[in-house]
Amino acid sequence: MTQPTRSNPSRGGFHRRDFLRGSGAAAAATALATGQGLAADETGAAVVGPGMSKITLNVNGADHAVLVEPRMTLLEVLRYQLNLTGAKPISGDGTSGGSTVFVAGKPVSASTTLALTCVGKPIQTVESLGGAKLDPVPAAFVHNDGMQCGFCTPGFVMAVRAFLNKHPQATEDEIRAGLNGNICRCGTYANVIMAAIEVVKGGARG
Ligand code: FES
Questions:
Q1: 183 lines ligand 1 (CB under 6 A)
Q2: Cis omega before residue 50 (within 30°)?
Q3: 100-103 and 53-59 strand pairing
Q4: In DSSP terms, which residues pair with 49 in a beta bridge?
Q5: pLDDT value at position 94?
Q6: Rounded-to-integer distance, Cα 189 and Cα 184, Å
Q7: Bridge partner residues of 64 (DSSP)
Q8: How far is the centre of ligand 1, averaged over its atoms, from the C-alpha of 185 (Å)?
Q9: Per-residue model confidence (pLDDT) at position 16
Q10: Which long-range contacts (CB under 8 A, 24 or more apart) does 48-51 make?
Protein backbone atom coordinates (compact mmCIF):
# COMPACT_ATOMS: atom_id res chain seq x y z
CA MET A 1 0.00 0.00 0.00
CA THR A 2 1.32 3.43 -0.94
CA GLN A 3 2.16 5.46 2.11
CA PRO A 4 1.40 9.18 2.29
CA THR A 5 4.45 11.27 1.54
CA ARG A 6 5.26 14.93 1.61
CA SER A 7 4.96 15.03 -2.16
CA ASN A 8 1.72 13.05 -2.12
CA PRO A 9 -0.48 14.64 0.53
CA SER A 10 -3.72 13.46 -1.05
CA ARG A 11 -3.17 9.94 0.31
CA GLY A 12 -4.16 10.80 3.85
CA GLY A 13 -1.33 13.24 4.40
CA PHE A 14 -2.26 16.36 6.29
CA HIS A 15 0.10 19.27 6.18
CA ARG A 16 0.08 22.23 8.47
CA ARG A 17 0.17 24.54 5.47
CA ASP A 18 -2.94 22.88 4.05
CA PHE A 19 -4.63 23.39 7.38
CA LEU A 20 -3.73 27.06 7.43
CA ARG A 21 -5.07 27.48 3.94
CA GLY A 22 -8.28 25.74 4.91
CA SER A 23 -9.12 27.15 8.32
CA GLY A 24 -8.56 30.42 10.10
CA ALA A 25 -6.12 31.63 7.51
CA ALA A 26 -8.72 31.11 4.81
CA ALA A 27 -10.88 33.78 6.35
CA ALA A 28 -7.84 35.96 6.72
CA ALA A 29 -6.85 35.37 3.13
CA THR A 30 -10.25 36.48 1.95
CA ALA A 31 -9.94 39.71 3.88
CA LEU A 32 -6.35 40.21 2.89
CA ALA A 33 -6.92 39.52 -0.78
CA THR A 34 -9.09 42.61 -0.99
CA GLY A 35 -6.21 44.98 -0.65
CA GLN A 36 -3.10 43.70 1.01
CA GLY A 37 -1.23 42.65 -2.13
CA LEU A 38 -0.58 39.02 -1.24
CA ALA A 39 0.90 36.39 -3.48
CA ALA A 40 -1.47 34.09 -5.32
CA ASP A 41 -1.05 30.36 -5.91
CA GLU A 42 -1.54 28.56 -9.21
CA THR A 43 -5.33 28.66 -8.79
CA GLY A 44 -5.32 32.39 -8.21
CA ALA A 45 -6.23 32.02 -4.53
CA ALA A 46 -4.48 34.35 -2.10
CA VAL A 47 -1.71 32.61 -0.18
CA VAL A 48 -0.91 33.59 3.37
CA GLY A 49 2.44 32.64 4.80
CA PRO A 50 4.32 30.65 5.75
CA GLY A 51 6.54 33.72 6.01
CA MET A 52 5.70 37.24 7.05
CA SER A 53 2.75 39.13 5.57
CA LYS A 54 2.37 42.88 5.80
CA ILE A 55 -1.09 43.77 7.02
CA THR A 56 -2.83 46.81 8.43
CA LEU A 57 -4.68 46.62 11.72
CA ASN A 58 -6.96 49.37 12.93
CA VAL A 59 -6.39 49.63 16.69
CA ASN A 60 -8.10 52.19 18.87
CA GLY A 61 -8.99 54.27 15.82
CA ALA A 62 -5.55 54.34 14.19
CA ASP A 63 -4.18 52.22 11.35
CA HIS A 64 -0.96 50.31 12.03
CA ALA A 65 1.09 48.46 9.43
CA VAL A 66 2.54 45.28 10.95
CA LEU A 67 4.41 42.23 9.74
CA VAL A 68 2.88 38.96 10.89
CA GLU A 69 3.27 35.25 10.39
CA PRO A 70 0.04 33.26 10.01
CA ARG A 71 0.54 31.71 13.46
CA MET A 72 0.77 35.04 15.31
CA THR A 73 -2.01 35.95 17.70
CA LEU A 74 -3.59 39.34 18.03
CA LEU A 75 -2.22 39.48 21.58
CA GLU A 76 1.36 39.04 20.36
CA VAL A 77 0.97 41.82 17.81
CA LEU A 78 -0.68 44.20 20.28
CA ARG A 79 1.90 43.64 23.01
CA TYR A 80 5.14 43.09 21.13
CA GLN A 81 4.71 45.18 17.99
CA LEU A 82 2.33 47.96 19.02
CA ASN A 83 3.43 48.18 22.65
CA LEU A 84 -0.17 47.97 23.86
CA THR A 85 0.42 45.85 26.97
CA GLY A 86 -2.98 46.19 28.64
CA ALA A 87 -4.26 42.83 27.41
CA LYS A 88 -2.43 40.14 29.37
CA PRO A 89 -1.05 36.68 28.51
CA ILE A 90 -2.38 34.77 31.53
CA SER A 91 -3.87 31.40 30.59
CA GLY A 92 -2.83 31.50 26.95
CA ASP A 93 -5.99 29.66 25.93
CA GLY A 94 -8.60 32.30 26.68
CA THR A 95 -9.91 30.69 29.86
CA SER A 96 -8.74 33.51 32.15
CA GLY A 97 -10.25 36.38 30.15
CA GLY A 98 -7.05 38.37 30.72
CA SER A 99 -6.52 39.13 27.05
CA THR A 100 -10.03 40.39 26.35
CA VAL A 101 -10.24 43.04 23.62
CA PHE A 102 -13.00 44.06 21.24
CA VAL A 103 -12.88 43.11 17.57
CA ALA A 104 -15.65 44.64 15.48
CA GLY A 105 -17.34 45.62 18.74
CA LYS A 106 -17.40 42.11 20.22
CA PRO A 107 -15.26 40.87 23.12
CA VAL A 108 -12.74 38.23 22.06
CA SER A 109 -9.71 36.59 23.58
CA ALA A 110 -6.71 38.16 21.87
CA SER A 111 -4.59 35.16 22.90
CA THR A 112 -6.70 32.81 20.78
CA THR A 113 -7.40 35.14 17.85
CA LEU A 114 -5.09 35.12 14.85
CA ALA A 115 -3.95 38.62 13.94
CA LEU A 116 -4.60 37.91 10.27
CA THR A 117 -8.30 37.43 10.93
CA CYS A 118 -8.59 40.97 12.29
CA VAL A 119 -7.78 42.77 9.06
CA GLY A 120 -10.56 45.21 8.17
CA LYS A 121 -12.16 45.04 11.62
CA PRO A 122 -11.80 47.78 14.23
CA ILE A 123 -9.91 46.58 17.31
CA GLN A 124 -10.36 48.22 20.69
CA THR A 125 -8.06 47.59 23.64
CA VAL A 126 -8.33 48.60 27.28
CA GLU A 127 -5.99 51.54 26.56
CA SER A 128 -8.85 53.18 24.65
CA LEU A 129 -10.86 53.46 27.88
CA GLY A 130 -8.19 55.52 29.63
CA GLY A 131 -6.67 58.90 29.01
CA ALA A 132 -8.12 62.31 29.77
CA LYS A 133 -11.70 61.11 29.32
CA LEU A 134 -11.67 58.07 31.57
CA ASP A 135 -14.43 55.58 30.83
CA PRO A 136 -16.85 55.03 33.76
CA VAL A 137 -15.85 51.34 34.03
CA PRO A 138 -12.16 51.81 34.93
CA ALA A 139 -13.19 54.80 37.06
CA ALA A 140 -15.56 52.53 39.01
CA PHE A 141 -12.77 49.96 39.47
CA VAL A 142 -10.73 52.69 41.14
CA HIS A 143 -13.62 53.84 43.35
CA ASN A 144 -14.42 50.30 44.43
CA ASP A 145 -10.90 48.91 44.80
CA GLY A 146 -11.61 46.44 42.03
CA MET A 147 -8.07 45.11 41.84
CA GLN A 148 -5.20 43.81 43.95
CA CYS A 149 -2.20 42.80 41.83
CA GLY A 150 -4.08 44.20 38.85
CA PHE A 151 -2.96 41.57 36.38
CA CYS A 152 -6.46 40.40 35.56
CA THR A 153 -7.91 43.91 35.72
CA PRO A 154 -7.64 44.98 32.04
CA GLY A 155 -9.50 41.85 31.00
CA PHE A 156 -12.15 42.40 33.65
CA VAL A 157 -12.55 46.07 32.65
CA MET A 158 -13.14 45.04 29.04
CA ALA A 159 -15.50 42.25 30.08
CA VAL A 160 -17.53 44.65 32.24
CA ARG A 161 -17.55 47.25 29.46
CA ALA A 162 -18.75 44.66 26.93
CA PHE A 163 -21.42 43.28 29.24
CA LEU A 164 -22.81 46.68 30.21
CA ASN A 165 -22.78 47.84 26.59
CA LYS A 166 -25.24 45.02 25.94
CA HIS A 167 -27.05 45.12 29.29
CA PRO A 168 -26.84 48.68 30.63
CA GLN A 169 -29.47 47.99 33.30
CA ALA A 170 -28.15 44.61 34.39
CA THR A 171 -28.93 43.32 37.88
CA GLU A 172 -26.26 42.06 40.25
CA ASP A 173 -27.11 38.44 39.44
CA GLU A 174 -26.91 39.16 35.73
CA ILE A 175 -23.55 40.87 36.16
CA ARG A 176 -22.22 37.89 38.12
CA ALA A 177 -23.35 35.53 35.37
CA GLY A 178 -22.08 37.81 32.62
CA LEU A 179 -18.57 38.00 34.06
CA ASN A 180 -18.08 34.31 34.76
CA GLY A 181 -15.61 33.99 31.88
CA ASN A 182 -12.96 36.00 33.73
CA ILE A 183 -10.73 34.76 36.54
CA CYS A 184 -9.00 36.74 39.31
CA ARG A 185 -6.42 34.87 41.33
CA CYS A 186 -6.45 37.60 43.98
CA GLY A 187 -10.18 37.14 44.52
CA THR A 188 -11.44 40.67 43.95
CA TYR A 189 -14.72 39.46 42.52
CA ALA A 190 -16.92 41.23 45.07
CA ASN A 191 -15.32 44.60 44.34
CA VAL A 192 -15.50 44.07 40.59
CA ILE A 193 -19.22 43.38 40.91
CA MET A 194 -19.62 46.51 43.05
CA ALA A 195 -17.83 48.53 40.36
CA ALA A 196 -20.15 47.23 37.65
CA ILE A 197 -23.20 47.99 39.80
CA GLU A 198 -21.94 51.54 40.31
CA VAL A 199 -21.74 52.02 36.54
CA VAL A 200 -25.28 50.68 36.11
CA LYS A 201 -26.45 53.20 38.69
CA GLY A 202 -24.82 55.99 36.73
CA GLY A 203 -21.90 56.59 39.05
CA ALA A 204 -18.14 56.57 38.54
CA ARG A 205 -17.58 59.27 35.95
CA GLY A 206 -13.93 59.64 35.11
S1 FES B 1 -6.22 41.46 40.97
FE2 FES B 1 -4.65 39.95 40.96
S3 FES B 1 -5.33 38.44 39.56
FE4 FES B 1 -6.99 39.81 39.75
A1: no
A2: yes
A3: unpaired
A4: none
A5: 86
A6: 7
A7: 57
A8: 5
A9: 37
A10: 48/20, 48/21, 48/116, 49/17, 49/20, 49/25, 50/17, 50/20
Give the containing element (helix H, strand E) for 9: none
Stretches where the chain sits below pLDDT 50 are 1-26, 30, 33-35, 37
pLDDT digit string (tens) for 111-143?
999 999 999 999 999 999 998 889 999 999 999
> Measured in angstroms, how far is the CA atom of residue 187 from the centroid of ligand 1?
7
Distance between CA atoms of 41 and 34, rounded to whole angstroms?
15
Ligand 1 atom nearest 150 alpha carbon? 1
Q: How far does the chain reach from its first CA to its final CA, in angstroms? A: 71
Alpha-carbon Rg for the chain in angstroms: 20
Write the CB contacts of 171 (distance below 8 Å, at least 6 apart in sequence). Answer: none
CA distance 94 to 137: 22
CA of 169 relative to ligand 1 center, distance in Å? 26
Query: Which DSSP string corresponds to 64-129?
Result: EEEEE-TT-BHHHHHHHTS----S--SSSSSSS-TTEEEETTEEEEGGGSBGGGGTTS-EE-GGGG
Q: Answer yes or no: pTM beyond 0.85.
A: no
